[in-house]
């Protein structure tokens, strides 16, 4: 494959794929919130393990998302460094102890506390990342729309979302065609041109893109109205899947994980951080 | 006495944005169970008439109405789009754009979803309707995995779920290759019989619709009904030609030969068309008198050598093909949707790079040229002018390519003016592009490529969605360029176009060249037409009737038509 699309739902029939969209959404939210509620590295590592196990079960094709993952890791490393540069003593503040590793200057002192804090943050992100990717990889977009509607999001907002996914590849194709046709007439939006020039050139592509997209929007809205869209306050969803045993099981499991995290956070550790330094 | 299901009475309509009414004093009755074909040029008001039936007028496109338009006895203006959609099902021209679901089942179910039909009722119903259009095995497919014909079937199923009484088709053939178009017309016919519905087809490809029986033809020009009669009567008169609609080929061939067509000869279909022995002789003699073929014998300008290309590294979209385009030729690339035509053109202009093989322009491998460098040699005009136009004024748009190339201002001006004159746009040079019609926009995009003086111009479906008059306008313009020595490559599934205008063609089937040679020989070979999803023209049948070699007969027809055009010039 030369190109990978970020939102490319592939149904490869794993148990994760078979879950209803609604339960996928709920599980995704529960696990994400779970990892947001804590900086306890033990808990985060367990969550990371869980999210990797889910990816494995869903046969998530890490290879295909290599580029996305590489960019993400670069961003994370950059973030890690920036964290240190901006607030090198935050770790010390949080944990109240100071175990020095190396002194660059008075202000920039590398401490175990800081490293531990940043590592926890790092783990937290990389535990959410596969979950997010997985979510888009395993959910049928229209089923997602119906699940959103299931958690009381207004159906028009849900259709907008589904339509965006439906026409995203089309508009992407339009963009490519326009871009190439422009290059054929001497517009250079490749890396050879200077940045300001490139920005200007991209703006030139937008005009035809907007016009051809407007055409499309008119057509779609006609097509929808002609089939009775928007006349009722409610609508049903063809791709909605009723919750079955495995859905309740999955939701139950995620609820348990979520509750355990909260338990760890508020009852056992009683702090956002688990402090190994005392 | 049958009851009318659609009834226009002294009906006029004017869009608020326009000064003149688009529909003038329409009186039209369509009875239950009838099949009516509405023909007319773009801008004649035929689509407006269709929009009056489905309620887009006046609810979406507002304007001033006088007179009455009733569906099942009810004034449409007292209903709503949603209410009308229960009686009138509309299948739009662009079956890709109107595919609102993410898969087939969901798209068919769309109207049911909006009606809050519960899931357990919806699923079996969708399945049942899908099987009516032979799509029951494709319910989980996404629109990207479907062919144009299949998408249209889905669109049709999407309105059939409502059990509508009137089926309205807005240019159903515009985006289909010839064979698929034929199947579509047959399907519409079958469904009408099965469901007992009334069918209104808006289309300017008359001959293709007449492939199956039609009760009446309504011709609209300039917002008014010109004729409303049975096909035999309409074809016997010369009213179609006078109003810019193309007659079936066999009818115009007979008319060329001087045969007087009467309704009694049943000209509405080649199968019913009755010719006396006298008529046949006349046609044969006429054909023989035009039977000289001159082939241009020129140098090779562009050469494709053992080209292969694939998007995914697995399936070759272009599979080891070789061909020559000669200097000064009008060259056609034909084949069904998805055969690799567009991909081939992308390779030629460098939008994609071949995996294997070479493209030689005047014996030079152009592999390492940038897209712009190639653009100066081989220009491409995309199908949709809106995808190319990026300036607001005509002059700027045409000058764009030269400006980017750093050409001096005086030279730009000179070349732009010269090109605008060739393209008949000189008078409008200071107009904003938004003031132009679709056909004029198309000409602007051609001008914007022509101004770069490329050795070859590639046009992707230059006449898609154009009626016969605009089609002729664009094609005659291209022919003039070609006569001045411009080499032109056209990608098309319009068989008339290829027959009439092209010197040579290649036929692509699954990325391979299935035929290379004279256009007149393609459409008379059953093997090729079947493989490539093309359609034999009715000239083939007429040739058999008058007992002449179809290949030669077709060539004679092209010659006759060409010389007729030359006389006009």
Describe this structure in words.
The complex is a heterodimer of chains A (278) and B (569). Chain A has helices at residues 15-18, 21-36, 41-57, 66-86, 90-95, 112-138, 141-150, 155-184, 195-225, 245-268; strands spanning 100-103, 109-111. Chain A has 278 residues and is mostly helical. Chain A has two domains: 1-140 and 241-278, no CATH class; 141-238. Chain A has a two-stranded antiparallel sheet. In chain A, helix 2 packs across helix 7, helix 4 (66-86) runs antiparallel to helix 6 (112-138) and helix 8 (155-184) crosses helix 9 (195-225). The radius of gyration of chain A is 24 Å and the shape is flat. In chain A, 32% of the residues are buried. Chain B starts with a strand and ends with a helix. The mean pLDDT of chain B is 89. Chain B has three domains: 4-237, Rossmann fold; 248-293 and 518-569, no CATH class; 300-517, P-loop containing nucleotide triphosphate hydrolases (Rossmann fold), CATH 3.40.50.300. Chain B is globular and about 70 Å long. In chain B, the strands form four sheets. In chain B, strands 6-7-8-3-9-10 form a six-stranded mixed beta sheet, with helices on both faces. In chain B, strands 16-17-18-13-19-20 form a six-stranded mixed beta sheet, sandwiched between helices. With 569 residues, chain B is an alpha/beta fold. In chain B, helix 5 crosses helix 6 (148-160), helix 15 (394-404) packs across helix 16 and helix 16 (409-422) packs across helix 17 (438-450). The interface between A and B is large, with 53 and 72 residues.
Quick take:
The complex is a heterodimer of chains A (278) and B (569). In chain A, 67% of the residues lie in helices and 3% in strands.
Keywords:
heterodimer; A: mainly alpha; 2 domains; two-stranded antiparallel sheet; 10 helices; 67% helix; B: 569 residues; alpha/beta; Rossmann fold; six-stranded mixed sheet
């Amino acid at each position: 494959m030369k190109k990978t699309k970020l939102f490319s739902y592939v149904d490869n029939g794993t148990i994760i794929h078979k879950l209803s969209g609604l339960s996928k959404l709920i599980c995704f939210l529960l696990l994400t919130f779970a990892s947001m509620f804590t900086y306890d590295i033990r808990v985060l590592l367990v969550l990371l393990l869980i999210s990797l196990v889910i990816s494995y079960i869903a046969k998530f094709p890490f290879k295909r998302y290599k580029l996305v993952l590489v960019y993400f890791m670069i961003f994370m490393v950059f973030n890690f460094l920036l964290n240190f540069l901006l607030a090198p003593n935050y770790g010390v503040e949080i944990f109240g102890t100071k175990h020095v590793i190396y002194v660059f200057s008075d202000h920039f002192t590398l401490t175990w506390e800081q490293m531990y804090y940043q590592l926890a943050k790092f783990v937290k992100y990389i535990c959410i990342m596969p979950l997010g990717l997985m979510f888009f990889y395993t959910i049928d977009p229209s089923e997602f729309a119906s699940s959103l509607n299931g958690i009381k999001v207004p159906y028009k907002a849900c259709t907008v979302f589904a339509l965006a996914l439906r026409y995203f590849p089309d508009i992407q194709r339009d963009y490519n065609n326009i871009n190439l046709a422009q290059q054929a007439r001497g517009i250079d939006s490749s890396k050879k041109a200077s940045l300001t020039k490139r920005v200007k050139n991209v703006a030139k592509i937008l005009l035809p893109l907007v016009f051809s997209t407007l055409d499309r929007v008119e057509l779609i809205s006609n097509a929808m109205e002609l089939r009775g869209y928007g006349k009722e306050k409610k609508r049903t969803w063809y791709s909605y899947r009723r919750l079955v045993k495995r859905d309740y099981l999955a939701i139950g499991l995620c609820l348990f994980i979520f509750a355990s995290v909260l338990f760890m956070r508020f009852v056992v550790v009683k702090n956002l951080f688990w402090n190994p330094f005392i | 006495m049958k009851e009318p299901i659609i009834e226009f009475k002294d009906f006029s309509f004017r869009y608020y944005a326009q000064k003149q009414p688009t529909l003038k004093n329409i009186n039209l009755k369509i009875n239950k169970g009838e099949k009516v074909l509405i023909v007319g040029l773009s801008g004649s008001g035929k689509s407006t008439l269709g929009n009056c039936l489905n309620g887009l007028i006046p609810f979406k496109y507002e304007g001033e109405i006088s007179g009455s338009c009733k569906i099942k006895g009810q004034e449409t203006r007292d209903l709503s789009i949603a209410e009308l959609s229960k009686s009138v099902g509309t299948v739009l021209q662009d079956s890709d754009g109107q595919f609102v679901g993410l898969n087939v089942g969901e798209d068919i179910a769309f109207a049911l979803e909006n009606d809050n039909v519960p899931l357990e009722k919806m699923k079996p119903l969708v399945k049942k309707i899908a099987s009516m259009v032979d799509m029951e095995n494709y319910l989980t497919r996404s629109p990207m995995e479907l062919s144009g014909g299949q998408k249209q079937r889905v669109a049709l199923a999407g309105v059939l779920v409502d059990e509508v009484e009137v089926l309205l088709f807005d240019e159903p053939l515009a985006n289909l290759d010839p064979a698929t178009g034929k199947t579509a017309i047959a399907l519409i016919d079958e469904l009408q019989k099965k469901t007992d519905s009334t069918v209104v087809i808006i289309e300017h490809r008359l001959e293709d619709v007449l492939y199956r029986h039609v009760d009446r033809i309504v011709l609209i020009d300039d917002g008014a009904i010109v004729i409303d009669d049975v096909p035999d009567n309409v074809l016997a008169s010369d009213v179609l030609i006078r109003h810019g609609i193309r007659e079936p080929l066999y009818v115009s061939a007979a008319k060329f030969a001087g045969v007087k067509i009467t309704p009694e000869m049943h000209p509405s279909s080649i199968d019913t068309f009755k010719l006396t022995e006298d008529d046949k002789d006349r046609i044969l003699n006429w054909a023989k008198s035009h039977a000289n073929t001159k082939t241009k014998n020129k140098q090779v300008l562009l050469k494709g050598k053992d080209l292969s290309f694939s998007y995914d590294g697995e399936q070759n979209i272009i599979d080891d093909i070789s061909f020559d385009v000669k200097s000064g030729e009008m060259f056609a690339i034909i084949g069904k949707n998805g055969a690799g035509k567009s991909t081939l053109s992308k390779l030629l202009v460098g939008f994609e790079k071949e995996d294997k093989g070479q493209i030689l322009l005047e014996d030079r491998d152009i592999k390492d040229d940038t897209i712009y460098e190639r653009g100066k040699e081989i220009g491409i005009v995309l199908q949709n002018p809106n995808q190319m136009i990026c300036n607001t004024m005509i002059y700027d748009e045409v000058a764009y390519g030269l400006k980017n190339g750093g050409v001096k201002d005086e030279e730009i001006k000179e070349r732009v003016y010269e090109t605008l004159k060739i393209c008949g746009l000189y008078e409008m040079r200071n107009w904003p592009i938004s003031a132009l019609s679709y056909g004029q926009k198309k000409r602007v995009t051609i001008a914007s490529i022509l101004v770069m003086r490329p050795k070859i111009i590639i046009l992707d479906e230059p006449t898609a969605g154009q009626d016969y008059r605009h089609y002729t306008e664009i094609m005659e313009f291209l022919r003039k360029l070609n006569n001045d020595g411009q080499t032109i490559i056209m990608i098309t599934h319009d068989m008339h176009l290829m027959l009439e205008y092209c010197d040579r063609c290649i036929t692509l089937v699954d990325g391979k060249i299935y035929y290379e040679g004279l256009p007149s020989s393609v459409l008379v070979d059953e093997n090729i037409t079947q493989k490539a999803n093309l359609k034999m023209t009715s000239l083939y049948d007429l040739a058999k009737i008058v007992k002449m070699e179809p290949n030669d007969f077709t060539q004679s027809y092209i010659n006759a038509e060409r010389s007729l055009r030359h006389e006009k010039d």
